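Milestone M4 deliverable, item 7.
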Amino acid sequence: MAKVKIFTTPTCTYCNHAKDFFKENNVEFEAIDVTQDKAAAQEMVEKSGQRGVPVILIEGREEPLVGFDQDALEEALNL
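Output delivered:
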């Protein structure tokens, strides 16, 4: 399965929905708290053009997913 990286914050409801979705579907992911990691926050902005979270990077997919869109995640992860 593709590697997944999610840029998140501790208070982000949609981030929690995405992480719950990954857990329910046995998708391994790396969660990065952009409030604690400024370099990761800059990487997130550079890759997505967004300052809001969640931003989800999926290995093999050129465009990041911004926000929690279950249908798009299922399609991107072939679930």
